[in-house]
Amino acid sequence: MTIAKMVRVGILAGMAFVIMLIEFPLPPFPDFLKYDGSELPALLGTFAMGPWVGVLIQLLKNLLYLTLSGRGNPVGVLGNFFAGSSMVFAAGYIYQRMKSKKGAVLALLGGSVAMGLVMLPLNLFVLFPLYGVHLAPDQVVPMMLGMVLPFNLVKGVLTSTITFLLYKRVRGFLHDEMPLAGRPTADEQ
Length: 189
Prior knowledge:
Elements: H1 3-20, E1 24-25, E2 34-35, H2 39-49, H3 51-68, H4 74-97, H5 101-131, H6 137-174
Antiparallel strand pairs: 1-2
Helix pairs in contact: 1-2, 1-3, 2-3, 2-4, 2-6, 3-4, 4-5, 5-6
């Protein structure tokens, strides 16, 4: 990875961390399901630099949140990492194969669906038990299909919409089309 790429990854991870600090509930979902748009910088990075870069941005964002925010619950951070990583990896994988406006839409929808599907078993078998939440058999389907899946799909679509609207405007910075400060351009060399 070049220094310029590392700088871009660091900037995107820092932006994601700051965005993660701004969370709020989405009606009609319960207050414990909060939205933050911190997957946005990771999606921008994955479109520009590939799916593993998006996962790296997710990892760095969550490590920053866990260590610097003062409110980093390890279980919640783990859930955020897997939710965001499943979304950005799936979206990046699809977009690498279809680099077009249609490909971007399909990638963002695919990433949203991947996040929703990954979070169903992860919440049921890992995160809820770590939080001490044990669902009775008759509560599983209403909780998973009535709250967890719809919330993650809404979160994914909302973040995807913002990503779609922003990517074209920032892609020059994310690729090598725009020089980093202090680095000479081809004309200056």
